[in-house]
């Protein structure tokens, strides 16, 4: 039976969060003399002299409308990376606990685990890039606190079998973190809809991919109210800046534009796959539910270096477990994709 108190670090259970100036009053105010800000404004066209809303209320309310989940079940962070780090710092005791990763997967899980001195148990995906449930079950022990699952997966692009993820959620007493950074491009539905079914579920999403706001660094975590409350206690008081909040809120009004870009990205992805298959050095192209494709080649490093020399940057994943010989190629604009294909015609 999942019990958050069995997972929380003892110091987090008793943690008294920093109380910011804006946390200490209720109601409306027009004169702010509490936070030692510059009262005269900012040397910019728009003033940013006031600290931002520490809990990003307006952005969360808009996300609540879009995602169909209460605002109290939403955490906003400085990118999804902050949410990942806070999960480690809240639930994993350094030098004691461990987490399970399923490579090949997003590299920041391992980096964050190493920063927080948390042991890693690796259970590689199957040859079909799906979860090895038997291997995961064998790896779990009394000190396993988190399992990270990226779906659609980076760098392979495929979605994980939904039944397999639900099997873990139903049988693991720690947190199952489902990273859905690329969910907008997927045929699968989001796991956000399962929050009421699984108390140990955390879903990560981002505004960096389909929403085109990578430069603003706004990540999201969706979970039970008690998990979100813990994350809000651990985070820095003003972790999402005012400019990011304002611009994110403005962007979240433009769903039609984003949906048009998603449709065009999927069209361009299919075209890119068809064209790449014509090259002799392409061995395989794996099915993708993301805005990128994983391409197995005869000489990944050579092709990568050739493209760099032409000013075209893709990602060499050939040294990643189960991705030998592979390049990860993001789907670009029609013109960018044509430039890539025309350039590859000159590769010998």
UniProtKB/TrEMBL annotation:
Pathway: Lipid metabolism; Amino-acid biosynthesis; L-histidine biosynthesis; L-histidine from 5-phospho-alpha-D-ribose 1-diphosphate: step 7/9. Signal peptide: none annotated. Its EC number is 2.6.1.9. It is an enzyme of class 2 (transferase). GO terms for molecular function: histidinol-phosphate transaminase activity; pyridoxal phosphate binding. Homodimer. HAMAP family: HisC_aminotrans_2. Belongs to the class-II pyridoxal-phosphate-dependent aminotransferase family. Histidinol-phosphate aminotransferase subfamily. NCBIfam families: hisC. This is Histidinol-phosphate aminotransferase.
């Amino acid at each position: 039976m999942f019990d958050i108190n069995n997972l929380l670090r003892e110091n987090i259970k008793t943690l008294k969060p920093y109380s910011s100036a804006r946390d200490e009053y209720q109601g409306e105010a027009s004169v702010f003399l509490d936070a030692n800000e510059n009262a005269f404004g900012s040397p910019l066209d728009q003033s940013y002299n006031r600290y931002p809303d520490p809990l990003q209320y307006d952005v969360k309310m808009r996300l609540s409308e879009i995602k169909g989940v209460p605002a109290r079940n939403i955490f906003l962070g400085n990118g999804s990376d902050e949410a990942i780090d806070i999960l480690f710092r809240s639930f994993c005791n350094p030098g004691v606990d461990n987490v399970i990763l399923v490579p090949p997967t997003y590299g920041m899980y391992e980096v964050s685990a190493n920063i927080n001195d948390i042991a890693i148990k690796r259970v590689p995906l199957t040859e079909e890039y799906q979860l090895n449930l038997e291997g995961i079950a064998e790896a779990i022990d009394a000190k396993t606190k988190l399992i990270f699952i990226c779906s659609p997966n980076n760098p392979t692009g495929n979605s994980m079998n939904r039944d397999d993820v639900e099997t873990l959620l139903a049988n693991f007493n720690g947190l199952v973190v489902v990273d859905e950074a690329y969910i907008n491009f997927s045929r699968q539905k989001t796991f956000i809809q399962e929050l009421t079914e699984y108390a140990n579920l955390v879903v990560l999403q981002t505004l960096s991919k389909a929403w085109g706001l990578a430069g603003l660094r706004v990540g999201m975590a969706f979970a039970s109210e008690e998990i979100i409350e813990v994350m809000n206690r651990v985070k820095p008081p003003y972790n999402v800046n005012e400019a990011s909040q304002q611009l994110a809120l403005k962007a979240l009004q433009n769903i039609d534009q984003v949906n048009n870009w998603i449709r065009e990205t999927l069209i361009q992805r299919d075209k890119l796959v068809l064209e790449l298959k014509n090259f002799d050095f392409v061995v395989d192209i794996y099915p993708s539910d993301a805005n990128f494709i994983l391409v197995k080649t005869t000489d990944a490093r050579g092709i990568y270096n050739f493209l760099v020399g032409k000013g075209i940057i893709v990602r060499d994943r050939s040294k990643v477990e189960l991705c030998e010989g592979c390049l990860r190629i993001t789907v670009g604009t029609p013109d960018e994709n044509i430039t890539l294909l025309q350039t590859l015609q000159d590769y010998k």
